[in-house]
Amino acid sequence: MGLRVAVIGVGLTEIRRKWDADSRQLAYEAVKSALDDAGIEPRDVEGILTTPQGYFTDPRDVDRFSPQRMGEYLFVNAKVQAMVDIGGMSSMAAVKYGVYEILMGRCRTVLVYASEKLVSRERWNPSVHGYLVPLVNGLYGPYDSKYGVMRAAVYYAMATQRYMYEFGVSRETIAHLPVVLRRNASMNEKAQMREPITVEDVLRSRVICPPLRLLDCCPTSEGGGAVILADEKTAKDVGGEACYITGIGEVHDPTSFFPVYHSVTEIPSARMAVHEAFKQAGVNVKDVDVAEVYGPFSGTELMVYEELGFFKRGEAGKAVEEGRTMINRGDVALNPSGGRLSLGHPPYVTPLAEIYEVVTQLRGRAGVRQVRDAEVGLVHAEHGMMNGNIVMILEAG
Amino acid sequence: MVPRCVECGKYIYPPRDFCPFCNSRRTEWVEVEGEGTLYAFTTNPEGLHFAGKTVGIVELKEGFKVFSLINASVDELEVGQPVKLEFTEVDLGGERKIILHSFTPI
């Protein structure tokens, strides 16, 4: 018997550069939307899983007791509460643990939520926020952090450089991806970046870490997301528009940032994770109609497309340029939400935003950006610089 | 200096006290020649003490890669070019100093 755990409700705030609402309000908004979407009451929630509220977060938005607080807010006797932290894939990992709680029969429903808040430049106060600098620098490990690394773009830039070098992919080819993603986001009212852009805009935007330019990079973003899981019987009793998680794969490389032991243009853990997920679901890459992929930078997003099996190595750029990842134009719709580059990327929320989009597509409720006959969806998330990967297969109910 | 496995001879980076390749517990710290090729490079835009400096990944002759400072501007560099090890003293402000490895194009 294969895996079959329902997603009965999804909620997502708009993704914005800055919200006035704090991390709790964003979480509550997303959770209320997910409860309404599922058609259940707060008291029906039996498990509560979440993530931290960000890496570069004001102390007033940090809540290490967030699951307890959510249990108090919902006023439920939860059978599990936990905060899961494994970098960018945290909220998808939390969904996986929620699936396990349901499979064990401990919970009939599990709420997974996340919200992300950042310290804005305007509000930066060294005496309040200065302690965050060594914390963020420390993410890059005892060796690399000594060189003052403060953002992952440094690694992603070098991976993109190698990708161009090894496969002869041009800078211009890569620039088509942000354009396609922006086009998708222009049809998504929750997206942060919705103004259409051109290849020239990408190539003329300012250099961040060469060869990456501003429009190759995800923006900094805030928002909240929530997903409600249930066993199949509960999903049927509730009677909403359930989709089903039918496959999960998760693999972590023995590396924490730059992969020392294999080529940086290869992501073996993504390949292994997608293989595991497909095998469990009994589907293959050709069956996938729509996918939300965790690509925080353009070049690496192309590599992920390849490692998930959508295109051969070195060929994703050309495929994107030919429109083969666009909604209802090509083989598969990839990041119809606008992806990390244009939907916006609050890392702890992103996996839930991906599930939100794929569930919306599988229900046929994505409006102008609806992928025709979407029945099989894939969501992907990662941590580090693609050092760990998780993939889930979702199918329409 | 980098640990090397006494049994299988592989270099172990980042350093560990066992060999991740053959699981031997017998490792020794050995000197490397300090020569290699530039695997990839970019600019570290707002890095602490290194804002705007070039950083890169160097593939050493001994067969492992390290992240390091590259003593050249990105315009002067090419993937695959030979580089050699140096040591750079960095002033961290106050009395604090740190010595880091860096690489210079040959």
How would you describe the overall organization of this protein?
The complex is a heterodimer of chains A (397) and B (106). In chain A, helix 2 (66-74) links the parallel strand 2 (47-50) and strand 3 (80-83). The mean pLDDT of chain A is 96. Chain A contains 16 helices and twelve strands. By secondary structure, chain A is of the alpha/beta class. Chain B is mostly beta strands. Helices cover 0% and strands 51% of the residues of chain B. Chain B has no helices and seven strands. Chain B has strands at residues 2-5, 27-30, 35-44, 53-60, 65-70, 82-93, 96-105. Chain B has a five-stranded mixed β-barrel with strand order 3-4-5-7-6. In chain B, strand 4 and strand 5 form a beta hairpin. Chain B is globular, with a radius of gyration of 15 Å. The two termini of chain B are 21 Å apart. Chain A binds chain B through residues 133, 137, 141-144, 146-151, 153-154, 157-159, 161-162, 165, 207-212, 254, 257-258, 260, 264, and chain B through 13-14, 20, 39-51, 55-57, 64-69, 74, 79, 98, 100.
In short:
The complex is a heterodimer of chains A (397) and B (106). In chain A, helix 7 (153-167) packs across helix 13. Chain A is of the alpha/beta class.
What is the string of SSEs of chain B from the N terminus onward? EEEEEEE
How far apart are the first and last residues' alpha carbons of chain B, in Å?
A: 21 Å
Principal-axes shape call of chain A: globular
For the record, give the distance between the C-alpha atoms at the N and C termini of chain A, rounded to a whole number: 17 Å
Question: For the residues shown, what is the average pLDDT of chain B?
Answer: 94
Tell me what portion of residues of chain B adopts beta-strand conformation: over 45%
What's the arrangement of strands in the largest beta sheet of chain B? 3-4-5-7-6
How many DSSP E strands of chain A?
12
Largest sheet of chain A: 10 strands, mixed
Enumerate the spans of chain B where pLDDT stays under 50 for 5 or more consecutive residues.
none
Strands of the widest sheet of chain A, in order across it, are 3-2-4-7-1-8-12-11-9-10
